[in-house]
Specification:
Shape: elongated
Number of helices: 7
Radius of gyration: 25 Å
Number of strands: 5
Oligomer: single chain
Helix content: 40-55%
Structural class: alpha+beta
Order of helices and strands: HHHHHHEEHEEE
Distance between the termini: 62 Å
Number of domains: 2
Largest sheet: 3 strands, antiparallel
């Protein structure tokens, strides 16, 4: 029965190949019998998303540059989907199933690719850049409730914060909470030696071990 299944030609559905590539770049190519090509496509997209995108966000590039990057990314995705559709059409009705042309294999590949993407997301969030939403008005008017910010964790790891920097840190009394504040003073300087940046606000001290980024 298995040999008959693989020997019998079964055409590739072009819409399914395109949908699979849209859900996970490279999966449509695997569906078309191009396992190596699909894996290479996924790895290339993974590298493109990890290095250049993180670099653009960390370097505080202009909105126009970020939009260009977004358009290019969408163009790459469109090209991958189009390639899967074209290759599926080219096979016509003469495609012979490969051993990996099974539903559970597609699901396994999707989950594996998704796991790699989640690990990538964790690495970026933990060591490179992380998005935060401002929940309170303690930093108003600089930051308002509901504002979204990107915290550069590479920057925080490279140098000590300076007076006036805005930093995000784990609250020492409860590390599960993350605070955002402006640096009022640094080690080696007494507070009475400098004019306060915000004399009406309460101040406190944190260790560098709690600093997440700037």
């Amino acid at each position: 029965m298995t040999e008959e299944r693989f020997a019998k030609p079964k055409p590739r559905r072009w819409w399914l190949a395109g949908l699979l590539s849209l859900l996970q770049p490279g999966l449509g190519q695997i569906y078309n019998g191009q396992a190596l090509k699909g894996t290479v496509i996924f790895l290339v997209v993974w590298v493109i998303c990890t290095v250049p995108v993180s670099y653009m966000l960390v370097m505080h590039l202009s909105v126009s540059v970020l939009l260009v990057g977004l358009v290019l990314g969408l163009a790459v995705l469109a090209a991958i989907v189009a390639d899967a559709i074209v290759c599926a059409r080219k096979t016509g009705g003469s495609y012979s199933l490969k051993p990996y042309n099974r539903v559970f294999v597609y699901i396994g590949v999707f989950l594996a690719f998704s796991l790699v993407s989640q690990v990538e997301s964790w690495v970026v969030k933990t060591h490179i850049i992380q998005a935060f939403r401002i929940p309170a008005a303690s930093m108003a008017p600089t930051l308002l409730v509901g504002d979204h910010i990107l915290v550069n964790k590479l920057h925080g790891a490279k140098r000590y914060p300076k007076r006036g920097d805005v930093v995000v840190f784990d609250y020492p009394a409860d590390p599960s909470k993350e605070f955002i504040k402006r640096v009022e003073g640094v080690a080696g300087r007494r507070r009475d030696q400098e004019q306060s940046l915000f004399s009406e606000r309460r101040t406190g001290t944190i260790g560098l071990c709690h600093l997440l980024g700037q």
